Amino acid sequence: MNRLLRVIPRARLLHTTPRLYQASNFAMPAMSPTMTEGGIVSWKVKEGDEFSAGDVILEIETDKAQIDVEAADDGVMAKIYKKDGDKDIQVGDTIAVIAEPGDDIKTIDIPAPVESDGKPAPKEEAKEEVKEAPKEEAKAPAPKAPSTPKEAPKTESSSAPSSSGYSAPANPAQTLLPSVSSLLVANGISKEDAFAKIKATGPHGRLLKGDILAYLGKVPEGSPGAVADEINKRSHLDLSNIKPAKKSDAAAPTGAAKAGDAAAPATKAAPEPVIFTSFLDVAHFEPEDQLELQRIVKQAIKLAKYDAVELAKPRRSANVDPDFEAIIGPAKGTKFYDVNVIYPKSTKRALSNGADLYDILSDRKPRKAAVQVPSNTVQVDVTVNDKVPGAEKRAKLFLNRLEYHLTVEE
Amino acid sequence: MLTAARRSTRLTSRLGHQVRAYSIADDADKKCTITLKEDSYTTYMLDSPPPLEFEMTKGELLQMYKDMVTVRRLEMAADALYKAKKIRGFCHLSTGQEAVAVGIEKAIDHDDSVITAYRCHGFAYMRGASVRAIIAELLGKRTGVSYGKGGSMHMFTEGFYGGNGIVGAQVPVGAGLAFAHKYLEQTGKATFALYGDGASNQGQIFEAYNMAKLWDLPCIFACENNKYGMGTAAARSSALTQYYKRGQYIPGLKVNGMDILSVYQGAKFAKEWTTHGKGPLVMEFETYRYGGHSMSDPGTTYRTREEIQYMRSHNDPISGLKAHILELNFATEDELKSVDKAARAMVDKEVALAESDPAPEATAKVLFEDIYVPGTEPPVIRGRIPSEDYYFKN
Question: What sequence ranges are listed for the domain Peripheral subunit-binding (PSBD) (chain A) (predicted)?
């Protein structure tokens, strides 16, 4: 074995290999697996400088970082092609020539610079083409999908999109589905027979359970084909019947509304505005001072409005896309309701005549007409903007929260 | 794995890649006495360190030198090819650690087993793979040691159970190899299970220690401590950086891994120890890698460039052996330089051959072969989708 030869040295080493290089091209290195090109920040050695392995000979920059390039070996910088500050140099392009230590850089042969794809740098167009040609050839067979050694029927691809029932001869190189396999065994059909006799409606000549059942006569003969057709039809999203909305439809309100502004809503037999009225007992606040009461109520309204917005938000769900909701919802700044507060005229205490919030929330008419505001209650009128869907709900939420905020600090 | 290793050896010999049979000196048998430095070894639970004085021949020394230079050239060629984007994927180089691979190989026989982690190019070369086969493997060529399917981490030859990609996972496998030697009563065969300082904190290594000691397996757990794991100094990741003491109940030996003669003598001692029924041994080769952990690590973010240059200029294993050879007057500076050049020319030639080797055919047959030992394949192997299923022709 050559191992033996290796261990027992025989003749004095007189090495006859011609010196392969006196100088060699130094190519733009890929300092990371993703680097394709880079620039030279600065050379740390000049032409004629000697360096030893591990010394930094230049600094390069990529789109990610600046990296020092170390010398792999001792050497002399014979020639520098790409100067400091050069940019977008492809990995593999010759950027310098390095000689071995001790070489006289003035007399050595300098190899021709090479570009990244292995071409010599001189632009010889004719040669380029010759080089390209075999590359193309070599590439061509590569993307071939690994095919099964057994005669994979060519028909599978051609017949797959054919119209009639999707049935094709079964592909003999398939692994049978468990359902199919057991059905075949149960009915005493051999695999070979099945491949030969049963038409397959699955993709690429795959036998499906329905095919076997149809073959056995347990389902109508045409049904597997019909199912396959249906699946094929429905497996593609057909967007052909969708048309963009006409501009005129969307633009109509702006143009025509000016004139028919009054007319358009009028035709809808202008419904009476919905007003919820709430009497809130504020006796416990002991509002000696009107301003103090107003401040508290205003604060409560603010909080309640905020709460109503929060509570009206759709639940967090995979089916709810906030962007989509924003698009279909009312425009920003749309008012859902107007709030009007009537404060008691005097701060003199009086018995509450018990406006029941339940009535208000259950949408029942208040039992008393809200003309006279009892001195210890605040009347809140909420006028619902009926043009906005969901406004009524929002208004009720608001009232509910307002009551909460005015009682919670008890 | 066995089959793959056997077949790849056959492949390399068939292609006639082995160009290492050129000789070094007429008086190769000329003997000399080597005296190692006192601090070459540190022991743990060992009565005495390996003898510091021993005999070697001129031929052995020169061969060691040549092999180390070749391994370094091989790694530099891999580095250059990687930076030219011809090698893709994983690539871990052992520049600076050559003394470990070469020294161990010189101390053991071809019958012994070696298993290591992914920094394996040097070991693969020393265990018989040619430079062409290794580079072709890195390039993904059909002529590679693993038919271009293994890449940098997965190289196998006879008696070399790989490059292994999973950190530390090769150590229990190595214990298993040692167990096989013991079970089959192959006395005199030892197993070197190598791992890095980063891997030494893996739990499975301690499991392997336990079984190896329990059954007195002829296994040498050899930690290549190159001082840095992936991006971190050993002291920042290990509670005990005296890796030779990690065996607790297993004797340990720390070796200066930057001196190939210490490695050689230490590995020889270890083999002697384990094959004479004394059970396993934990070794630590203190070494240094000049490059980054892998190709995507510049290797200068967690240590200074000055430190690397200091190690290169003061502790380089090749320069160290060169000094020895010059001191013994076995060769002149020029002769050693010509060895350097010959090694470089050889590697360049082999790299050129590997580069010109054809890429594997893009067929299903090539893709699915070598998964099973021939003759034991199931009828079908599944692809990603049913139409990619591969049917073996039996």
Answer: 175-216
